[in-house]
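=== Structure Prediction Worksheet ===
Name of assembly: unnamed complex
Input type: mixed (protein and possibly other molecules)
Chain count: two
Listed entries:
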Amino acid sequence: MSAMESWTWPPRYDDSYRPAHNSRYWFPIRETMAPDKRDEAIVQRLREICDYAYGSCSFYRDKWNDAGFHPSQIRSLEDFERRCPVVTKADLRAAQHRAPPFGDYLCVPESEIHHIHGTSGTTGRPTAFAIGRGDWQNIANAHARIMWGMGIRPGDIVFVAAIFSLYMGSWGALSGAERLGAKAFPFGAGAPGMSARAVQWLGMMKPKAFYGTPSYALYLAEVAAKEGLNATDFGIERMFFSGEPGASVPGVRDRIMDAYKAEVFDCGSMAEMSPFMNVAASAESFQGMLCWQDICYTEVCDPKTLVRVPYGQRGTPVYTHLERTSQPMIRLVSGDLALWTNDKTACGRTYPSLPQGIFGRIDDMFTIRGENVYPSEIDAALSKLPDYGGEHRIVISRDGNMDELLLRVEVTAELSAKGRPAMDAFRQQVATSVHTMLGLRTMVEVAQPGTFPRTDFKARRVIDDREVFKDLAQRLRFEAT
Amino acid sequence: MSAMESWTWPPRYDDSYRPAHNSRYWFPIRETMAPDKRDEAIVQRLREICDYAYGSCSFYRDKWNDAGFHPSQIRSLEDFERRCPVVTKADLRAAQHRAPPFGDYLCVPESEIHHIHGTSGTTGRPTAFAIGRGDWQNIANAHARIMWGMGIRPGDIVFVAAIFSLYMGSWGALSGAERLGAKAFPFGAGAPGMSARAVQWLGMMKPKAFYGTPSYALYLAEVAAKEGLNATDFGIERMFFSGEPGASVPGVRDRIMDAYKAEVFDCGSMAEMSPFMNVAASAESFQGMLCWQDICYTEVCDPKTLVRVPYGQRGTPVYTHLERTSQPMIRLVSGDLALWTNDKTACGRTYPSLPQGIFGRIDDMFTIRGENVYPSEIDAALSKLPDYGGEHRIVISRDGNMDELLLRVEVTAELSAKGRPAMDAFRQQVATSVHTMLGLRTMVEVAQPGTFPRTDFKARRVIDDREVFKDLAQRLRFEAT
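=== Predicted Assembly ===
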């Protein structure tokens, strides 16, 4: 058979299909075919989904008419990329303001809506996600396929640790686990007191697979230790993460692997893009993520021109749904940062890779004396130090021309017990390490273990506050004298 | 057609079936047939499920062999009730201790398990629920059917406010909403800060239906007021509740209806019994709950003898699954308290009723000078007073022979502003009301608005602490002098 498996528009999957238990691939043809052949199919699909969107909603019709773009112009990937205008999150917010509650980019009748979720932004009007009944099944199919690629198999217990609420991450992992034929354990942390219970249940159920955020996995290992348990006793074999960088950051990744003795996989693009596991690691290609181009089409683009950059370069991912009929995203700008390559993969899938995962946001970047710095790079540098206590804060002062930066870094209890000289040596070590790895001179405050609150969701480590910066700089200069 | 709709063992439903939009009933025959004819079918089904359980797991086989019971003995409901021994929660805990993690009452292969949930008990070993793939669909079917009976229709937005975690309530409501063809909005409160967001989303999405706990609905109305909104602006038409008494307690029910101008429905037996909406109100029979006997068979029993009590009497519900193949519960003692009747229902369903819902736990009862009192009765008495501020605490001192009780009761801000004499009058009013309604003399402390923390889950109002009681009694006696 040379045709691609289940490659139809509108997308429709056999919900009872599963590959042979020992198969590495869910869809061997689609995952390993020659990229140029796949690209031909993607061009055809882009025309189909653009035709569909043009005919089904005013959002795309008006936007494209204004830009002089029409789906019939798509004869190559380059045609699509050059002519089709991008969509931003601000466009979506405006569309929902104009046509509440789901926006004029809803392409199915309201009666088709199966689930409503939304952004969890704390300021301004949040954005609602409306996911159609058929799309929900397609999302489950896509996630099951990708989780299969991570080595998760029917019958495995999949412990979904992250919160079940507006946040799409947990729902996507759950739908994939269900479709895969796993035993889904939707634990859902987030409420006070749940972390101690999570540890108790992990010890009782010994799940094969775990989903959450990297911060929360590290925190749970600390909670386990406090309860007299060892995270390795949970017997978890595979852990997959989204929601924040970390699982692709070598130092963080190593700390998680070390705490659980499990394999660690990064995944996840954006909630709007569900099936958001369109970028994800596989069991053999475990560093960074693959771009599963036949699920969503990814271009890594120059953040300013929004033109695709060559492989080997950094840019912001721009995503296009190939299998969504409700609220399809066509050239949605992520605002994330990634480097992409097209090297041969260890797993044999012929997809491009994001070997460092998603390592920041365009907006997170700060520039210190001419150096572009991302918070995840500091996380990575600290995580390599054996005496690092697991949390830190980056205090910056953005001042137009000249951004400044200070670090507050926790030490381990062992180091703290050794007293002041050891702490001073650690401070020097941090400064040297950050300088070597990032070319960045910074002042460092050493903090006692447990100084900074842990989180059961995404860590917020950057404090952008001129006053906090000034106070702290004052104190550090005083201590240094 | 005289056969009951989709009445087969093992249970199998057409997942695409829906009644006509204007039909009051999901299954007109099953819901309105002559009770004796239904009972005949239930006797047959009890024999089938007991045969199945006897053949599939050692838990029931051993228990029943010890008791001299065999499924072939079931020729009437009375045979079943007299011969089949009950199951207690302690039995389930012991079974999971003996055969971890799911217990020797799991009647399907582990590979059939679709979802894992569990009790949220904070002490001791919690109990895991393993729900099979087919059972999950049957639960969804049963819940869709019962929610249809409440008047919820395809396309309605169903806002599921309660937490998605171990607690089965939200998952059951979600599965029903999905199966019904509603727009499911699994909001999932519980994490800090979510209540203000819930209010924001309710205002944006204006859902037709709402699921949560009564305490949380009342709390959300307060949060709305703080945010300058009115809960009536959400446009909610139907609210259904489980997890604690309240929706059947007239005073509480009235306060919710008043705050939201919505219809209020009580439902829910026990997480172990999923489909737990086996006891639930309907749009026309909105006070208390119906026992949907063809989904789970309910007997209200004398708590000591565990023999069915006549209609019109109080007892503890004992439930038997008629449609579960994974971990079927056969004569599970709830430990709850209810009164049951067999009067003609307003909706025309020929089921027995629990007209006061589930109004307490056997263990919650305290005896004050010979009077048996349940916390929900105090809740009901207070909720009828216009100046009641919405929260209270019941301080008891259990002392073997002589239990004692004090009440701490919040007033409204309006009353509080009127000063001491008004507060004193309210104190007297509470004492009189509790005496009239419950035949109970009690000391009362009047508390300022907002004294007691609100909850996004189940309210815990009883404080059983001898020292707290003594201190408070001392203070009240002093103030009274």
